[in-house]
Amino acid sequence: MQIGVLLSGKGSNLQAIIDAVKDGSLPVKIALVLSDRPDAFGLKRAEKAGVKARYIPPGPYRTILSREAEKEYVKALKKAGVELVCLAGFMRVIKEGLLSAFPGRILNLHPSLLPSFPGLEAWKQAFDYGVRFTGCTVHFVEKGVDTGPIISQAVVPILPDDTPETLLNRIHQKEHLIYPLAIKLVAEGRIKIIGRRVIIKEKGERP
Ligand code: GRF
Q1: If you measure from the C-alpha of residue 206 to the centroid of ligand 1, how many angstroms do you get, rounded to a whole number?
Q2: Which of 48, 57, 139, 206 has the fewest Cβ atoms surrounding its Cβ within 10 A?
Q3: Spelled out in words, what is the top-level CATH class assigned to the domain 109-139+148-207?
Q4: DSSP H or E run through 2
Q5: Which CATH architecture has domain 1-103?
Q6: CB count in 10 Å sphere of residue 79
Q7: What is the pTM of this model?
Q8: How far apart are CA 176 and CA 165, in angstroms?
């Protein structure tokens, strides 16, 4: 399966995907990396790994792609043969243009145990709320923000001497494990969605 990765920032999750592809544990090809920021470090990581990567200007809005930009993203992804789009720190809400071009084929990674703490700086929201456990979630993207059927989650305890930064570091470590694994499940066709629930089939089990 050919995947595309969309990012806006440092791209440590892209790196985890690149590493998993390299060591053979993730059977996909990263066909294209796209960024809405020209200075995203993730673009450098892609370049270093020999993965095709591009900055595509997002248009004038802060939280979404403009219609025209959205078309450019879709065009580039389709041209590269992308079958599954993986958001990895892409800081824009995905709208109809991308959703309809890749129906049920867009994944997102979120730094909390959804449905708790959707939105921005979710680890800080959890920290400030005082929950004892938070974590990270991989889910399918649908119209709502940080909604969509959940593929996998990992739990991270909040420790007495944590700061938001130390907590985020430990969440990242878990993200780097669960995102490649979730992508693998999708790539191997092992996911069945019943209502909101994602059922993971055994290898070789019929649809
Ligand atoms: C991750 O924490 C992810 O949960 C969120 O954005 C962050 C991206 O980090 N959606 P990185 O750019 O992959 O290091």
Answers
A1: 34
A2: 206
A3: alpha beta
A4: strand 2-7
A5: 3-Layer(aba) Sandwich (3.40)
A6: 10
A7: 0.96
A8: 17
pLDDT at 207: 63
Contact 159, 179 (CB under 8 A): no
Neighbouring C-alpha atoms within 13 Å toward the C-beta of 133: 6
Q: Which tokens hold the place of 124?
A: 């800080």
* 176: annotated active-site residue: no
DSSP E strands: which ranges in 8-149?
29-35, 53-55, 84-87, 106-110, 133-140
Using the structure block, give the residue that is written with the tokens 């593929």.
151
Q: Does residue 88 line the site of ligand 1, with CB under 6 A?
A: yes
3-class secondary structure, 117:
coil
Query: Helices 12-22 and 164-187 meet at what angle, rounded to 10?
Result: 40
> Which ranges constitute the DSSP H helices of 119-192?
122-129, 164-187
Residues of the chain with CATH 3.40.50.170: 1-103, 109-139+148-207
Say which residues have a Cβ less than 8 Å from residue 45's Cβ, sequence separation at least 6. Answer: 11, 14, 15, 18
Which atom of ligand 1 is found nearest the CA of 168?
2
CA of 123 to the centre of ligand 1 (A): 11
CA atoms of 93 and 59, how far apart (whole Å)? 13
Q: What is the pLDDT of residues 88-142, one digit of tens each?
A: 999 999 999 999 999 999 999 999 999 999 999 999 999 999 999 999 999 999 9
Contact 106, 26 (CB under 8 A): no
CA distance 51 to 99: 24
